[in-house]
Specification:
With about 400 residues, the chain is an alpha/beta fold. It folds into two domains: about 170 residues, Rossmann fold (3-Layer(aba) Sandwich); about 200 residues, CoaB-like (Rossmann fold). The chain is built from 13 helices and 21 strands. The strands form six sheets. An eight-stranded mixed beta sheet has the order 12-11-8-13-16-17-19-20, with helices on both faces. Strands 2-1-3-4-5 form a five-stranded parallel beta sheet, sandwiched between helices. Helix 3 packs across helix 5 and helix 4 crosses helix 7.
Length: about 400
């Protein structure tokens, strides 16, 4: 069976503060309720400027709280009762104002009072103008909160509600859901396991401004890292250059070359699991120049000499007593997909190969969907076309099943 994190019955207190991103909280509520979470909601005065208590309560299926001095069971005030009942407090969006109140212990409304009174874990999804996000005061407040154990998801870079663009856009609802699943997955089937995941392309330099690389976006590898973390694993993600945010709750080591990726993986041992999802360049230029190669009129193009890059998958699979207990490779093929994966399984010494076709017509590189085949000594299991996030969750479940069966 596949292991999946379930939010069914999990008690989550959602705080919605002011900002245009508050409209996303309505979708977040819907997504959490689809997964069986039990929600209570607090709407700040600023948040109510963007969404109504009626719309939020209709989706939650319960009244929305906004009164600091309301009383609950046994005469407890609202800010005490609400945090007493919750397993996790999620602040989405978390405005610059509310982050400042949290950092400095202010408590002049229900939201800030309950956050000060809460002894439960807090997950914040910041959202604000990029200048507010970059301001030293906000960054200092954030550093203080993170030092106290407040978790964070986002913000992302992109278009902002005021027509500008930059970092400050609230994480998408599904990203926040994944961060919540990661929190509750700390007690999942991969708890106390360490996983190394490689992701993205590598860039092999020709000279200081040019390099050899490939079309990998890193979406599948990053999704796998997040899915393993959601099942409770401690994950080290070794990533080549990608245009993706680091997955929440995951240690990320950023590298450029194949040699740097291998060195980072070896430094991260010991590990229980290794998933080599990166599209590593097979070759590198033997002697990259230290100065830019210039084009001269009439001169022939430069001749490049290549040498083989280290084989990261084989190095981990044949690491002797430092070998992870389960080593998973990826085979990106443009033809004879299954045969290529079977050959890799035999030659690399890994336990499982995830094979996929990456020809131009498939849209796999850079796209959001994937069609994979799991190739092992036991045979071949083919999955239907799925979003990469779904592939990641199913693969993480399969990994949990395999490693817990040992």
């Amino acid at each position: 069976m596949d292991f999946l994190v379930t939010l069914a019955g999990r008690r989550i207190l959602l705080v919605v503060s002011g900002g245009i991103a508050a409209y996303k909280s309505l979708d977040l509520v819907r997504r959490l309720r689809e997964r069986g979470a039990v929600l209570s909601c607090v709407l700040t005065r600023g948040g109510a400027q963007f969404i109504t208590p009626l719309s939020l309560s209709a989706l939650v299926g319960a009244p929305v709280h906004d009164d600091l001095f309301a009383t609950g069971e046994g005469g407890a005030t609202a800010h005490i009762q609400l945090t007493r009942d919750a397993q996790l407090v999620v602040v989405a969006p978390a405005s610059a104002d509310l982050l400042a109140k949290m950092a400095h212990g202010l408590a002049d409304d229900l939201a800030s009072a309950l956050l000060l009174a809460s002894d439960k874990p807090i997950l914040a999804a910041p959202a604000m103008n990029f200048r507010m996000w970059q301001h030293p005061a906000t960054q200092a407040n954030l550093a203080l909160l993170e030092a106290r154990g407040v978790r964070r998801v986002g913000p992302n870079a992109g278009s902002l509600g005021d027509g500008e663009a930059g970092e400050g856009r609230m994480a998408e609802p599904l990203e926040i859901v994944e961060a919540i699943e990661t929190f509750f997955g700390a007690h999942g089937p991969l708890r106390d396991r360490h996983a190394i995941v490689t992701s993205g392309p590598t860039q092999e330099p020709i000279d200081p401004v040019r390099y050899i690389s490939n079309r990998s976006s890193g979406k599948q590898g990053h999704a796998i890292a997040g899915a393993l973390s959601a099942l409770g694993a401690r994950v080290t993600l070794v990533s080549g250059p990608v245009a993706l945010a680091d997955p929440a709750g995951v240690e990320v080591i950023h590298v450029e070359t194949a040699q740097q990726m291998l060195d980072a993986c070896l430094r991260s041992l010991p590990a229980d699991i290794a998933v080599c999802a990166a599209a590593v360049a097979d070759w590198r230029v033997t002697s990259p120049t230290t100065a830019k190669i210039k084009k001269s009129a009439g001169a022939p193009p430069p001749r490049l000499e290549f040498e083989a890059n280290p084989d990261i998958l084989a190095s981990l699979a044949k690491a002797g007593n430092r070998r992870p207990r389960l080593v998973v490779g990826f085979a990106a093929e443009t033809e004879r997909v299954i045969e290529g994966a079977q050959a890799k399984l035999a030659s690399k010494g890994c336990d499982l190969v995830v094979a996929n076709e990456v020809g131009a017509a498939t849209g796999t590189f850079g796209g959001d969907a994937n069609t994979v085949h799991l190739v092992s000594a036991a045979g071949v299991v083919s999955w239907p076309p799925l979003p990469k996030s779904a592939v990641a969750k199913r693969l993480a479940g399969r990994i949990a099943e395999l490693i817990n069966a040992e």
